[in-house]
Amino acid sequence: MALTAARRPRSPWFAVRRDLSGGRTTFLTVLSFLVPLGLWCAISYVPGLWQPQMRVTSAGGSETFDLGMRVPKAQFAEENADLVAAGKAPAVGEPCNPVFLPAPHEVGKAMYKAFVTPPKSKGDKWLHEALLHSISIIAWGFGIAALIGVPLGIACGVWAASSRLVEPVVDFLRYMPPPTFGALALAILGINDEPKVAIIVIGILFNMILVVANTTRQVDRGLLEAASTLGARDRQLVTRVVVPAILPTLWNDLRIFIGVGWTYLTVAEMVGASSGISLFINQQGKYRNYDNVFAGIILIGMIGLVTDQILAFLGRVLFPWTGAEPGPLTSACRRLFRRGKS
Amino acid sequence: MIPDSATTTQDIEQRLLKIRDRPVVLEAKHLTRHFRTSQGGTAVALQDVSFQIHRREFVTVIGPSGCGKSTLVRLLAGLDEPTMGEILVDGKTVNGPGPDRGMVFQSYTLFPWLTVQKNVEFGLRMQGKGDNECRSQALQWLEMVGLESKADFYPHQLSGGMKQRVAIARALAARPRVLLMDEPFGALDPETRAQMQSYLLQIWQNINITIVFITHDLDEAVLLADRILVLGAADGVHPGGHLKQFMDVPLPYPHDVDVLRDPKFMAVRTHLDDLVHPRRELVRDRLPITRMVPLGDDV
Ligand SMILES: Nc1ncnc2c1ncn2[C@@H]1O[C@H](COP(=O)(O)OP(=O)(O)O)[C@@H](O)[C@H]1O
Ligand SMILES: [Mg+2]
User: Fold this and answer.
1) How far, rounded to the nearest angstrom, does the alpha carbon of residue B61 sit from its chain's CA centroid?
2) Chain A residue whose CA is closest to B180
3) C-alpha to C-alpha distance for B129 and B135, rounded to whole angstroms
4) ipTM of this predicted complex?
5) How many CB pairs under 8 A join A and B?
6) How far apart are CA A249 and CA A251, in angstroms?
7) Integer distance in angstroms from the first to the last C-alpha of chain A?
8) What is the pTM of this model?
């Protein structure tokens, strides 16, 4: 009798709370970037897919059209009909998208050009200087917020008294939109970077206290009880149990708050003397250099994504006990880290 | 042969009497615990429980679900405050948890961020011992539970039985006077559970430790114990969990799995069963179910 080897059925792509295989994970990650990029390319490069306008390449006999001007297709046809009726040479043009949607290659070129082109006027900053300035605002704002918010949040999570004293008022404060503090920050802290940092701090701090307190309250009471039957005193319960127990979750909380910092950055940078990447984007918008605007926005996204991925990776190296299956790079770094410690 | 081994009935009785001559390590006096219920009333979890436990005794606590076993052991550990009554260790009243009463929980409660070895070191570090002493003692205790090869593993890399052995090593490493265990093997499969019972008996026979062991498994209670503390649930006479009987286990010593085949074992077990489940009729009570299987293939 012939034995047919039972073929294992392929596992489904959608299975509730199941992990995907490594290959599928990578595939989907790449796809999540490729889909919007592909759409953008299609709209930009496939003739007639959208292209509601005509770019004038030769004005012909027209007096209203200029070289390079973008006009709606209907208007272009109307004008040409008039020109032909009047016996003049018709204008020549090619279909194009509106100016606010530059093609990918234009944005790519703009991104490169923005880094290598010196600023127009002397006092202005290079793009990389503007970016570094933005990053430093976020670093200060996030750093100060974490320095206050993490200990205070832990205290609220550990002691009911701290929680009752701090959390009600913080709950009240966090509903005030940070930008509304702009004028106040300006009056108190001057027009330089200080009010900008203050707005980031306000944007992060209050929510951070509540989130860290909540994270702290999630610590398994059984661990605290076990520690106290092993002779741990109150102070040791905090330093030896609560803090190490929350570290992995706290790490992820902080990653999210760095992201929150970026969302308040544009508002913060407009307070007082405008600066940083927001100033760059706003100026380019005014000049109608939308390729540069896109370049700036995409840069922010890339910086955010890259820092977050680095932090996520560091988390896997630092907290091996969370049980996530480590990749080869993660295990190598863990070994290095362990050797460094001992 | 272990020095105080006993096989004949007379020997067994002699041995149990001699245990009574040992000093009292743990004493509960009129322990009572009331809980405030959400409806505003009070629930009596434990009512007036008193007993004495002697040095190196192995006491199991048994009783129906909800009779206050966990409440009792948490009171003994100092994790909960009695409404009335007091707890004495070596004759001195204790308040709150302390390293003199180690505890092993059903849910392991190992520190996930520490390796197995560091988990076992925890109690020693709390006592301010130096690095070298911590390490050598931890490894010694790990060896005792047969897990020295897992010293550098994290808890999530261990099986349930291994985790519970680490938890036992961790509790013992802090050198408690009494080891309190709340259904420690309740989450393990029967095979691992039998293995763990054997390990625990071996450990207990070889070190100076008094054990109070909660279980709801009758076999386990009889197999492990010198004496069994039987708690009863609320009934017409008692408002809540109460001490029903503190009975000797007159079985050959040292106990091991062979005890399970001893006819005296069945006698003790049956007696316990009647104490713990006094209303067996409840089980035989019939529900008013009508047959809904008109298939006609009953055999
Ligand atoms: N924190 C609590 N609040 C209110 N009632 C409780 C609390 N803990 C235990 N109880 C009650 O006390 C009784 C004994 O509980 P427990 O000691 O857990 O029983 P066992 O461990 O024997 O199953 C139960 O009726 C339970 O509902
Ligand atoms: Mg219980």
Assistant:
1) 6
2) A229
3) 10
4) 0.90
5) 74
6) 5
7) 62
8) 0.88
